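Reading a protein record of the kind used here takes only a little practice. Think of the row as the fold of the chain written in a discrete alphabet. With that in mind, consider the following protein and its fold in token form:
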Amino acid sequence: MVGLIDIAPLTKTVTIRDVAVDISGVSARGIAHLLARFPELRALMAGREVAIEGLLALGGDVVAAIIAAGTGVPGDQAAEQAADRLSIDDQADLLVAIIELTMPR
């Protein structure tokens, strides 16, 4: 019999600058933290589908925080700073994977 531990958490690997980065979805607790910290994110997430362009338009702080949360270190300042230094293309690749795992449907 398959249990909850067998199906969670889902992960995916994204290659950034020839380095494999493990991505996981952002948990409900992590989303609540992000929404409390970034109220502008709430409006975007109110829709049924979150577009990468919409996330990128919210600005670097929001994007960096989502990437940190999606790489397993929500709220970690060093991780957010590292995510902020990535190119827009790299950030978009990571966001796509994070969104797919966070909201698979």
Remarks:
- The two ends are 24 Å apart (CA to CA).
- The first strand starts at residue 11 and ends at 16.
